[in-house]
Amino acid sequence: MLLRSAIVLATLIVFNKVRSFSNNSDDAEKYNVGGVLSDFESEKHFRLTISHLNFDQNYKTSRNMTYYGKSIRMDKNPIKTVFNVCDKLIDKRVYAVVVSHEQTSGDLSPAAVSYTSGFFQIPVIGISSRDAAFSDKNIHVSFLRTVPPYYHQADVWLEMLNHFGYTKVIIIHSSDTDGRAILGRFQTTSQNYYDDIDVRATVELIVEFEPKLESFMQHLDDMKAAQSRVYLLYASTEDAHVIFRDAGNYNMTESGHAWFVTEQALSANNTPDGVLGLQLEHANSDNRHIRDSVYVLASAIKEMMTNETITEPPKNCDDSGVNWESGKRLFHYLKTRNITGETGQVAFDDNGDRIYAGYDVINIRAKQKKLPVGKFYYDSGKATMRLKINDSQLIWPGKQKKKPKGIMIPTHLKVLTIEEKPFVYVRHLTDDEVQCMEDEVSCPLFNTSNGIGTKLKNLTNSFNSSIFAWLGFLENDFCCRGYCIDLLKALSQRINFTYNLALSPDGQFGHYILKNSSSSSLPPSPPRKEWTGLIGELVNERADMIVAPLTINPERAEYIEFSKPFKYQGITILEKKPSRSSTLVSFLQPFSNTLWILVMVSVHVVALVLYLLDSHEEKPLNLSSAVWFAWGVLLNSGIGEGTPRSFSARVLGMVWAGFAMIIVASYTANLAAFLVLERPKTKLSGINDARLRNTMENLTCATVKGSSVDMYFRRQVELSNMYRTMEANNYDTAEQAIEDVKKGKLMAFIWDSSRLEYEASKDCELVTAGELFGRSGYGIGLQKGSPWTDAVTLAILEFHESGFMEALDKAWIFHGNAQQCEQFEKTPNTLGLKNMAGVFILVAAGVAIGVGLIIIEVIYKRHQVKKQKRLDIARHAAGKWRGTIEKRKTIRASLAMQRQYNVGLNSHTGTISYAVDKRRYHRLGGHRGPENAWTGDTDALRSRRCLEETAKLKHSPKIHAPLPLLNKNRQPINLLPPRYSPGYTSDVSHLVV
Predict the structure, then answer these.
(1) What distance in Å separates the CA atoms of residue 869 and residue 876, rounded to the nearest whole number?
(2) Is the dihedral angle over the CA atoms 170, 172, 175, 179 positive or is it negative?
(3) Where does the secretion signal sit in this chain (predicted)?
(4) For residues 494 and 794, what is the distance between their CA atoms, to the nearest angstrom?
(5) Distance (Å, rounded) from C-alpha 81 to C-alpha 883?
(6) Is residue 869 scored above 70 in pLDDT?
(7) Smallest Cα–Cα separation from 298: which of 333, 258, 260?
């Protein structure tokens, strides 16, 4: 730092010195080129190159254009170099300065030249300075070089790693500017410039050490614990000597390890056999670089003169306010050069650093012999750099001909998963449970955001442990089972590894966050991506594998490794199967409303016509009987009452019976058609359905907010109209949306096909609509360069071929219900209670009406019975009253007759009874003598005998009864005495006076 301050101070002193101006006028076609060179040979070659340039018309715009070389010797004292540049170069009005230095002098003198010339915007072309500091354009504003900086070797490292297939490395670098720059270059180039490489190298461990090492032992333990066995070393020759010494003591330079080193480390005198290093082509050919730098300058001046005017450069260092604008423009033209020189293809990047520089790939052999085994060269046909290595000539550490694997393959893996039905079911252990069930695997949860994670356990080496989880995870409080768990078990058995399983730290698959790099490495790196969730754990190498429904996409594949998909899936639509409208009158659906009305009208019209046609017959149908007949024929219920009597009415009845047969048969057939027709499986045909693209008010669709499906719709321009409509309906979780689909609140839920197929298999009323879109697959996630990638991929392919994956689909996704749902689909549609509710309501209404009529009829009949009883009582009373009157009349008549009889006894012989009987009942006086009437004959006996005789006369074929006596109204007269007449008696002795 003191030396750099002295350089700046000396520069200011020179700027303030009083100098005399030269009165010599310079020709406009004269161009002075300065040179600060390390030795006499370089100066000589510089002047020779300038003289040759003047004879090359390809680099001149006119014949009068002449270049002059002004060179000085590089001084080890940078302060003296500053004064020499001002006195001997700037005074000569040089347009540019070519600078080199001796290896022992360091970069301070070239830096002094760059500071001084850059102050006046005079371009400086370095031919040997390779430090990263010269890439900083804030300090070295007009410096460019024909040699690449040391940190550009990171580009060759990446090509070599890609050639050998190494994907995980350990970088060892010094903590100076160049060491940090090579690390930044490696990481930046890996991300930005090699996107087309399928397998990209990732850094597992970064080992940074302070220069001037005495021991490297403290870093070797960390390196040995890492998986990678590929080391990238940037160190000075002295530091590399210490690193190789200590690494050899740890046997880390023997077989199984691979070392890639830079040029400085390659020069260590104890470099192990089999180390691969780089050597810049023409690194020590100053003459070649001098020529290339002069011709690059001439090319830039020529093009600049063609496009614009070049003003004269500053003449002295007195005026600190001089700002040569043409110098800025000339530096810009220099950076755009791309010529073929003696050192190869010469071109520059924005920092003025050489690109397209060639390297030799050096393999260290016994006794420090350096054998070139490959080249990193410019391919003019493809205009890019290519690497070519002769693998057959390579010797690896331990004198092995076979390439080391470059990684220590672990057999106990840290596996992450996440709860996602039906792939992973998570169950919390109850208080009385000690370990998981047989078909489950312990999966502890670690989530520091929820305050969990205070109990950490050491990494266990036991596969069967159910008490401890691997480092960073809690006690075994959770158990997991499902599709992915069965897959993990099968993989562990197939490719022979043990594992500890744990749930996602934050319950997410993971997304990236852009963060600006705080590193001070040069060049500045772009914002880097930091991943969260499962991906973050894998990227940060805190886990070895992810076994979950992890979607394969390019963003994730940039940072982690994926196996071949174990399940292919996409995006689909879930909806509820459409069903027929179930109304109270569903049983009327076979006929239209108009037809039903016409049938009803026809019944009553036919009944009326039957009544009219039958009215003139002897026993005609009344109107009610005609209506009953019409309904009975139609409903085939039998005819309980009369039938038509007239011929015309009977003809009409036959026609009506045919009509009824056709109507009933048509209704039955149409109803059967309604039952056997399959209902449509889906309402929508898929994502291209016009009802989705032009969303209607009665069709609601949705997805989950902020999900990958949501992002898919945002990216698709053709779905923008649909997305604007569905955005307002989006749900927070898939469970809520699926529940609303079941309830009918949501018509279409757009989500991951595997989950929706699982839901459709559980509930046969749900169905996925249309074909999959946005297709992707689920894969096993691994670290970049994981040695298990190929083995896992091959195992998954074998599982597909053997049918194991199909068995997992049936067991977990379709739940064994696929056949049941298929049978449900094939079953014809049937009428249920909803469809036939109207029929039952109709019957219930008929029953209710019948009951009501019965009640009315019973009440009416009770009223009639009471009325009839009253009439019967009245008739009985009237009868008794009439009987009493008749009795009294009879008694009076009997008394009168008795009196009359008594009077007759006094004047005639015989009894009064006989005389009376003979006069009133002449039949009795046939052959019976009067004496018989008085000999114990009662009235009853006489009446019976009289009736018997009359009956005999009536029924005898020979004896005819005499005609009854008729009164004047021709009605028969009853000559028998009344049974109840008490006035008639055989004993009338009491009447004798």
Answers:
(1) 10
(2) negative
(3) 1-20
(4) 10
(5) 174
(6) yes
(7) 333
Q: Which of 7, 30, 25, 42 is nearest to 118 (CA)?
A: 7
Q: What is the DSSP letter of 394?
A: -
Q: What angle do CA 385, 389, 392 make, to 5 degrees?
A: 170
Tell me: pLDDT of 451 over 50: no
Tokens for 586, please give them. Answer: 């569903």
Question: Tokens at residue 446, please?
Answer: 């670690």
Half-sphere exposure in the Cβ direction for 808 (13 Å, CA): 23
Cα separation of 331 and 300, whole Å? Answer: 8
pLDDT beyond 70 at 974: no
Residues placed in the known binding site: 549, 551, 556, 708, 752
Answer with the residue of higher pLDDT: 555 or 548: 548
CA-to-CA distance for 292 and 298, rounded, in angstroms? 10
Biggest alpha carbon–alpha carbon distance for the chain: 219
Determine the pLDDT at residue 800. Answer: 93
Q: Where do the domains of the chain lie, and which CATH numbers do they carry?
A: 29-120+286-342 (3.40.50.2300), 150-284+359-393 (3.40.50.2300), 414-448+474-515+527-566+779-801 (3.40.190.10), 593-677 (1.10.287.70)
Q: Burial-class residue 248 by CB neighbours within 10 Å (0-12, 13-18, 19+).
A: middle
Stretch (H or E) spanning 549: strand 545-551
Task: Please state, in angstroms and rounded to a whole number, the distance separating the CA atoms of residues 353 and 420.
Answer: 52
d(C-alpha 301, C-alpha 311), whole Å: 12
Q: Does the structure show a pLDDT above 80 at 972? A: no
Known binding site for L-glutamate: residues? 549, 551, 556, 708, 752
Q: Are 661 and 653 in contact (CB under 8 A)?
A: no
Q: What is the mean pLDDT of residues 612-623?
A: 78
pLDDT tens for each residue of 504-552: 877 778 777 777 655 444 455 567 778 888 888 888 888 889 999 888 8
At 357 the pLDDT is 93
Query: Containing H/E element for 799?
Result: helix 789-802
Give CA 447 to chain center in angstroms. 24
Q: Which residues pair with 370 in a beta bridge?
A: 364
User: Rounded to 5, what percent of the chain is helix, strand, coil?
Assistant: 45, 20, 40
Would you tell me the crossing angle of helices 593-613 and 623-635 to the nearest 10 degrees?
130
How many Cβ atoms are within 10 Å of 845's Cβ, its own excluded?
10
C-alpha 97/C-alpha 114 separation (Å) is: 9
- DSSP line for 127-162: SS---GGGG-TTTSTTEEESS--GGGHHHHHHHHHH
pLDDT tens column, 382-395: 889 999 999 999 99
**How confident is the model at residue 953, as a pLDDT?**
47
Q: Do 913 and 928 meet the contact criterion of CB atoms below 8 Å apart?
A: no
Q: What is the pTM of this model?
A: 0.54
- Mean pLDDT value of segment 74-90: 88
**Could you tell me whether strands 441-442 and 168-174 are parallel, antiparallel, or unpaired per DSSP bridges?**
unpaired
User: Residue 772 burial (CB < 10 Å; 0-12/13-18/19+)?
Assistant: middle
- Express as a percent the part of the chain with pLDDT over 90: 31
DSSP 308-354: SPPPPPP--SS-TT---HHHHHHHHHHHT-EEEETTEEEEE-TTS-E
Residue 783 corresponds to which tokens in the numbers above?
């670290």
Pairing verdict, β 369-379 and 359-365: antiparallel
3-state secondary structure of 243: helix
The whole-chain average pLDDT of the chain stands at: 79
pLDDT value, residue 591: 80
Q: Are strands 384-389 and 369-379 parallel, antiparallel or unpaired?
A: antiparallel
How far apart (Å, rounded) are the C-alpha atoms in residues 739 and 660?
A: 49
Beta-carbon contacts of 207 under 8 Å, excluding residues fewer than 6 positions away, are 170, 171, 172, 173, 219, 222, 223
One-letter amino acid of 251: N
Mapped onto helix, strand or coil, the DSSP state of residue 735 is helix
